[in-house]
Amino acid sequence: MPTTWIVAADSSRARILRVVGREHRLVEIQDFVNPKGRMDERELITDAHPRQETTAVEHETELFAKQIDRYLDKARVKGLFDKLHLVAPPKFLGLLRHNLGKETAKRVAEEIDKDLSWLDVRELEKYVVPGKARER
């Protein structure tokens, strides 16, 4: 049976979960936190910083997406998952997709463009585990 991982993320938190057992339960295996993803722009810049095309919050969010993608690439190389499901709000989902390595991107079986990262594990199962899904 192939090993499936779920990434439920937004700009400030990413949870990596694994589907296990016959009941297809989710087990959280990693939790990333990016408090800068929710900060106000003024909290991240100083007067010394020149104006940029991307905001400081956008930059921090991009770095966070890259951190998650590096983790996934390393896990793929180690053979820790076969299939990957990405669950994130549309903008962050785009960042994840853009930063995924080519071989890891081939493992993506499903993308759900919703912010479900705040749900508890049992609620999240209803959205991402086959047979338990509710209307998306």
Number of strands: 5
- Strand order, largest beta sheet: 3-2-1-4-5
Instruction: Report the CATH superfamily.
Output: eRF1 domain 2
Which structural class best describes the helix and strand composition? Answer: alpha/beta
Residues in β-strands, percent: 15-25%
Distance between the termini: 26 Å
CATH class, named Alpha Beta
Describe the structure concisely for a colleague.
The protein is α/β, with parallel strands linked by helices and 136 residues long.
Fold blueprint:
Elements: E1 4-9, E2 13-20, E3 25-33, H1 41-44, H2 56-77, E4 83-87, H3 90-99, H4 102-105, E5 108-112, H5 121-128
Parallel strand pairs: 1-4, 4-5
Antiparallel strand pairs: 1-2, 2-3
Explain what the structure shows:
- The protein is an alpha/beta fold and 136 residues long.
- The protein has a single domain (4-128), classed as Nucleotidyltransferase, domain 5.
- 35% of the residues lie in helices and 24% in strands.
- It has five helices and five strands.
- It has helices spanning 41-44, 56-77, 90-99, 102-105, 121-128, and strands spanning 4-9, 13-20, 25-33, 83-87, 108-112.
- Strands 3-2-1-4-5 form a five-stranded mixed sheet, with helices on both faces.
- Strand 1 and strand 2 (13-20) form a beta hairpin.
- Helix 2 (56-77) crosses helix 3.
- The model is unreliable at 39-44 (pLDDT under 50).
